[in-house]
């Protein structure tokens, strides 16, 4: 930011006021409640940015993986699979195993989450995901694994050795996203599931005006130096910024818990446009394709297509009976001119217990015309993130539902079902939240404490590996011969592909 030292205190003083003017402030800043680089005022502060350059990848290792990470789950299709050339280092092609403990790591061998004695296992599982561990999966770029954790830290880890390169906590808030990595920057999204009493009252009186994360901690997008983890700039938002932004053409596209879609300059955080849609973006991350931005909101349950240049609403669609956090929890997937979205819907008491359906719907990406709707079935209401993230590969939609604890494969153009796979030993909170990953003829799923390999044509389970802990809305990120994962027990895991699928060829 090119501001004089005399103007900077004035800008910082104005930021809180600007946040209150609308759902998103129009000014990016460089100062946050964090001590100076190196933490000279308190060298022992646990929140000082820690940088260990001796753990940077070698020149050869720095070529491993994609060159950028622009969307949650790796792409608009949500398939985080990255094959490597024969010239890649042997370790990357053969695969590595390591477990990196983050700041609040809970033993992977412990099958009960912290707080189980107070909340019960069913509720304690999502609480640990939301406040201690990694809600989403990890990003891998240039031989480095990047992770956001609800322990308030972001991490850069050597993909080969599992050693920490840097750790940073730019703000006192949970980091529930999938780090974006473009050029020399890493983009983090900050915001939590909090809904204070004022928002509860607002929701009761006018649900459409409620905002998640409003007046709870400090929300926004934080741009960090990719190499060192130092803060470059931040863009504050009034509602939470739990969803991962999307990057396209030098711009970041953001959705917030206060119901706004926002476009900012990815270089300096300057506001380009803002469109207040209403509703709440819980964990639904935008997807950008062919000049349009697709975003989903709950409370006012709509999927929107926006003009990426102006933010103008081009069309909106819904899922009949969408309920609860519904559409605002699920990130839309886009491929071949079709947008796929799912949501829990049509609540009903069955046998004295609340139940929900999971509906999957496909829209024409240009016009919003409904192409098909598929009912995954009805099941008991589960806590927290109630939908499954869809993934599209080669004309097939793969999607799970924690309400039914099952995955299905559907024809992208017609919605015709190919198979259904029930998750074994799904657990009290349900299973099937994360997007699967298709890699070299096999489908990989991370759910519960396990990794599974499935036949993508039949849904037949081929093999599984017990990792421990729990996987929340986690997609397996596969780079060459290794599967990288974020864990609700506050770990980052690296598992050799051949352990999960002995027949695999990286």
Based on CA atoms alone, the radius of gyration comes out at 21 Å
Shape type? globular
Query: Strand share of the residues?
Result: 35-45%
Q: What class would the helix/strand composition place it in?
A: mainly beta
Low-confidence stretches: 1-26
Strand order, main sheet: write it out: 1-7-6-5-4
Measured distance between first and last alpha carbons? 44 Å
The oligomeric state is single chain
Give the averaged pLDDT, no decimals: 90
- Note the total helix count: 7
Main sheet summary: 5 strands, antiparallel
Question: How many strand segments?
Answer: 33
Share in helix? 10-25%
Question: What is the gist of this entry?
Answer:
By secondary structure, the protein is mostly beta strands. Helix content is 10%, strand content 38%.
Structure explained in plain terms:
It contains seven helices and 33 strands. Residues 1-26 have low confidence and may be disordered. The N and C termini lie far apart (44 Å). It has helices spanning 8-21, 90-94, 116-119, 121-131, 197-205, 326-329, 497-500, and strands spanning 50-51, 81-82, 98-101, 139-141, 144-148, 154-158, 164-168, 180-182, 185-190, 219-225, 231-237, 246-248, 251-255, 260-265, 271-276, 287-289, 292-297, 302-307, 313-317, 333-335, 338-350, 353-364, 370-380, 391-393, 396-401, 406-411, 417-422, 437-439, 442-454, 461-471, 477-479, 482-487, 491-496. It is mainly beta and 506 residues long. A hairpin with a 2-residue loop joins strand 24 and strand 25. It is 10% helix and 38% strand. It has a five-stranded antiparallel beta sheet, with no helix packed on it. A five-stranded mixed beta sheet has the order 2-31-32-33-3. The protein has a four-stranded antiparallel beta sheet with strand order 8-9-10-11, with no helix packed on it.
């Amino acid at each position: 930011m090119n501001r004089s030292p005399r103007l900077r205190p004035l800008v910082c003083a104005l930021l809180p006021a600007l946040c209150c003017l609308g759902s998103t402030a129009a000014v990016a800043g460089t100062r946050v409640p964090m001590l100076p680089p190196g933490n000279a005022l308190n060298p022992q502060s646990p929140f000082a940015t820690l940088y260990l350059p001796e753990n940077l990848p070698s020149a050869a290792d720095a070529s491993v993986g994609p060159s950028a990470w622009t969307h949650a789950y790796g792409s608009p299709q949500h398939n985080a699979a990255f094959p490597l050339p024969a010239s890649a280092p042997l370790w990357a092609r053969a695969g590595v195993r390591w477990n990196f403990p983050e700041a609040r790591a809970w033993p992977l061998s412990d099958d009960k989450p912290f707080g189980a004695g107070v909340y019960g296992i069913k509720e304690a599982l999502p609480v640990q995901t939301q406040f201690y561990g990694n809600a989403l999966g990890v990003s891998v770029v240039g031989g480095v694994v990047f992770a956001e954790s609800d322990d308030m830290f972001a991490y850069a880890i050597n993909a080969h050795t599992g050693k920490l390169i840097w750790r940073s906590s730019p703000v006192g808030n949970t980091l529930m996203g999938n780090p974006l990595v473009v050029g020399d920057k890493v983009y983090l999204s900050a915001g939590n599931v909090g809904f204070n009493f004022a928002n509860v009252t607002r929701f009761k009186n006018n649900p459409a005006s409620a905002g998640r994360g409003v007046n709870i901690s400090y929300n926004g997008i934080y741009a960090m130096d990719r190499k060192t983890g130092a803060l470059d700039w931040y863009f504050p938002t009034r509602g939470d910024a739990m969803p991962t932004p999307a990057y396209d053409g030098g711009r970041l596209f953001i959705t917030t818990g206060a119901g706004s879609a926002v476009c900012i300059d990815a270089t300096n955080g300057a506001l380009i446009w803002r469109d207040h849609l209403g509703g709440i973006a819980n964990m639904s991350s935008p997807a950008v394709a062919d000049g349009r931005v697709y975003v989903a909101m709950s409370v006012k349950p709509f999927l929107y297509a926006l003009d990426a240049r102006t933010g103008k609403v081009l069309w909106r669609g819904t899922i009949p009976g969408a309920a609860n956090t519904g559409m605002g929890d699920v990130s839309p997937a886009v491929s071949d001119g079709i947008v796929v979205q799912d949501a829990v819907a049509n609540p009903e008491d069955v046998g004295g217990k609340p139940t929900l359906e999971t509906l999957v719907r496909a829209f024409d990406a240009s016009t919003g015309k409904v192409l098909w709707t598929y009912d995954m079935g009805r099941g008991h209401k589960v806590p927290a993130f109630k939908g499954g993230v869809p993934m599209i590969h080669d004309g097939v939609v793969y999607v799970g539902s924690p309400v039914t604890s099952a995955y299905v494969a559907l024809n992208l153009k017609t919605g015709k079902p190919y198979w259904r796979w029930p998750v074994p030993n799904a657990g009290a909170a349900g299973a099937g939240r994360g997007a699967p990953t298709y890699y070299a003829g096999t489908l990989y799923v991370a759910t519960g404490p396990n990794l599974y390999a499935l036949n993508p044509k039949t849904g037949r389970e081929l093999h599984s590996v017990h990792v421990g802990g729990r996987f929340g809305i986690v997609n397996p990120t596969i780079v060459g011969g290794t599967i990288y994962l974020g864990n609700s027990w506050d770990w980052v895991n690296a598992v050799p592909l051949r352990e999960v699928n002995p027949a695999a060829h990286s």
